[in-house]
Amino acid sequence: MHKLLSKKTVITLSKFRLLAFVLLLNIVANPVFAQSGSQLREKIEQGAERYLLNAIGNDSEQENISINMVAIDDRIQIPVCHTPFNYHAEPASLRQSYISVRVSCGNNDWYLFTNARVSRTRTVVVTAGLISPGSLLTSENLRLAEVDVNLLRHTSYSSTDELLGARMKRRVRNGQPIQANMLCFVCKGDRITISAQGGGMQVKTAGIARQDGVIGDNIQVINASSNKAIIAEVASTQTVVVTL
User: Which UniProt keywords apply (predicted)?
Assistant: First the structure.
């Protein structure tokens, strides 16, 4: 035989069910309960990546940046933060390949360090095959490629047109970035034209280079007419300029 419930008991049970339902809605709607530990870790990793892209990108406009976040250990407990997480990395570390980012919460003393591996590449001119010393650079033996910036110790070039007519000073293997220390636009012993400019006038004379130089370098040349040594700026593969 079924036991009859009193009206008071039914009302109490109804209130209990209603309270449980309201509590369940709060749990679903409230991020304090809704976000699991894995979701919080993912949120922090994504926030740290966005922070680094912004911080590094401001100083690396000509570079292609790739950031791989190191996964946060599953054993680390992350409390819910009622304000946006704060991210900070030391400015000096932003040029490194491995960066630590401090993550903190503004409404408590909690913080952790999450790490990222950063790859920086730049589109530069590289060799399209083996090039021997003294070889003339042409569109046939040059190409563009993405290169790790850590391999670029000297001035590099972003256009093959910049290098046409220059000569290699040493043997260079296929795919190696072309850098200023490898080549000369004017090479020692070259016969060149010395252009003396000043006061709206220009005088040209023949000369001989006594040093190697790339465009923009100041090198010593001999004036063939006076046999005197002067310092002139390399302007092209055939011309140096002296400002009077």
Answer: Bacterial flagellum biogenesis, Cell projection, Cilium, Flagellum, Periplasm, Signal
Residue 24 CA: distances (Å) to CA of 17, 27, 32: 10, 5, 13
What do you get for the CA distance between the two ends of the chain, in Å? 120
Q: pLDDT at residue 125 above 50?
A: yes
Tokens read off for 157: 């070039």
Q: Which one, of 90, 94, 114, lies nearest residue 40 by Cα?
A: 114
Q: Where in the chain is the domain with CATH 3.90.1210.10?
A: 122-184
Q: Which of 76-85, 131-140, 161-170 has the lowest mean pLDDT?
A: 76-85
User: How far is the C-alpha of 63 from the C-alpha of 146, rounded, in Å?
Assistant: 10
What CATH number should be reported for the domain whose range is 122-184?
3.90.1210.10
Task: Indicate the pLDDT class of residue 153, thresholds 50, 70 and 90.
Answer: confident
Tokens describing residue 35 = 């976000």
Instruction: Tokens for 136, please give them.
Output: 């003339």
Predicted model pTM: 0.66
Collapsing DSSP to helix, strand or coil, 14 comes out as helix
CATH topology of domain 191-243: SH3 type barrels. (2.30.30)
Widest pairwise Cα distance in the chain:
130
Both tokens assigned to 4: 């009859």
Instruction: Collapse the DSSP code of 8 into the 3-class scheme (helix H, G, I; strand E, B; otherwise coil) and give the result.
Output: helix
Q: Considering only CA atoms, give the Rg of the chain.
A: 34
> Residue 200: pLDDT band by 50, 70, 90 thresholds?
confident
